Amino acid sequence: MLVSWKETLESLQATVPLPFPVTVSRRKLSNGLQGYCKLLMNGTTKISIVVDKRLSESMQSDVLVHEWAHGLLTPFIYEYTDHGSMWGIMFARCYQAAYE
Ligand SMILES: [Zn+2]
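Above: inputs. Below: predicted complex with zinc ion.
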């Protein structure tokens, strides 16, 4: 299925909003990193999601859904490389929001 980046982002924001303001950006990433999510706590708390802009648009959307699931776990989890059962539940919710 082909869902555009914009539609994916809008569906996620509407259906599974993150607990803090989020900045989503697309940049060139190195070291084979496709994307990341991190919590910024200098002053105001914000979530930053970055996706590798060299990926195809549908891959970028897939990575966004993946990182969004990490974002939903803030502020409970600080380890964003964890893909355990809590992340899995959040990922299912995000996947549903984006693709169903
Ligand atoms: Zn991850």
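Residues 59 and 71 are 18 Å apart (CA to CA).
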